[in-house]
Amino acid sequence: MTTVNKIANRQVICETLVEQAATDRDIVVLASDSRGSAALAPFAKAYPEQFVETGIAEQNIVGIAAGLASAGKKPFVASPACFLSMRAIEQIKVDVAYSATNVKLVGISGGVSYGALGMSHHSLQDIAVTRAIPGLTVILPADRHETRRAIEALLQHEGGVYMRIGRNPVQDCYESAEEIPFEIGKAVELRQGDAVTLIAAGETVRVALDAADCLAAEGIRCRVLNMHTIKPLDTEAVLRAAEETAGIITLEEHSVHGGLGAAVAEAVVAHRPVPMRIVGIPDEPAITGTTAELFEHYGISVAHIRELVADLLRQR
Question: Which of 112, 176, 188, 300 is the most exposed place for a label (fewest CB within 10 A)?
């Protein structure tokens, strides 16, 4: 049974980088006037010579990071996901992906984390855009433990990565970082089941787990896949789910177009067509409100998943 700790993933990123930088002087952290929102003040204080502040200049920060990577450094860019993925997409495409530089892009306050600030600050297209860029890995960790493992993995991974995290504290999905078999491109099966498969990434993993536990109490065993890596997608796990369960439901804090659901659907339709439902933000300007309010409004909820599972099982 998981504990109910709630810690923001951005805090864990800073803690992990502070620890790793003690023995790796090539780690450089860059912020776009975002050291506060990215919780990076402790890193800047501990390693001022390994910290670069560019101000509100997302295009510049990506170019500077690419230059540092070309000089042998290991740059981590921390910038609001809504601006990093939109304003600097050309630099991400050319300076990071096309140029094959070892830059780790961390989109903070992703999805609807900024809540009441509305559509201008929501990042609901970033996965669609970044996963379409050749040579760019896309990762969404679920909780603090997986975030720690992801940062450790990124330090060993050569190449450009876009990792998106939320802003607010999130409930644990794992007991500890040590128990996580984290591997880039490899989904984690968090619940076994043969009824319906729930595939989620980032903060929607907790919703999928809660829904699966609720359904299990009713005798319905749903498989839960934590698809922390959207690209490269674990196609093998997806097709196994399509083969062994009655259907697939994807959950994402993203537009229903071009994100996790689309990636899963592309694999399914090409190899093993099964009934699918994509749960996310519809093709409209998202309303304002807290993350919990928006999740409830758009059906990223236990109640809605129960309805969808029942519908898929009726079609079996």
Answer: 176
**Between helices 302-314 and 204-216, what is the axis angle to 10°?**
60
- Would you call 23 exposed, middle or buried from its count of C-beta atoms within 10 A (0-12, 13-18, 19+)? exposed
Tell which phi-psi region holds residue 72, choosing left (phi > 0), alpha (psi between -120 and 50) or beta. Answer: left
d(CA 220, CA 88): 45
Distance of CA 134 to the CA centre of its chain: 18
How many helices and strands (H and E) does the chain possess? 12, 14
- Collapsing DSSP states into helix, strand and coil, what is residue 96? helix
Place of tokens 């109490």: 217
Residue numbers annotated as active site: 58
Phi and psi for 227 in degrees, rounded to 5?
Answer: -90, 70
Over the stretch 132-146, which tens digit does the pLDDT of each residue have?
Answer: 999 999 999 999 999
Strands 104-108 and 161-164: parallel
Q: How many CA atoms lie within 13 Å of 145's alpha carbon, on the beta-carbon side?
A: 17
Which pair of structure tokens corresponds to residue 151? 């940062």
In angstroms, the CA 165 to CA 115 distance is 14
Tokens standing for 303? Answer: 């109640």
With 0-12 / 13-18 / 19 or more C-beta atoms within 10 angstroms meaning exposed / middle / buried, residue 28 is: buried
What letter would DSSP give residue 98?
I
Dist CA 311 CA 316 (whole Å): 9
C-alpha to C-alpha distance for 3 and 259, rounded to whole angstroms: 29
Q: Report which of 122, 119, 120 is spatially closest to residue 110, judged by C-alpha positions.
A: 122
DSSP 285: P
* Predicted structure pTM score: 0.95
Backbone phi and psi for residue 46, each to the nearest 5 degrees, phi listed first: -75, -35
Residue 4 is predicted with a pLDDT of: 56
Give every residue of the chain whose pLDDT is below 70, as ranges: 1-5
**What are φ and ψ of residue 216, in 5° steps?**
-60, -35
CB 126 within 8 A of CB 231: no
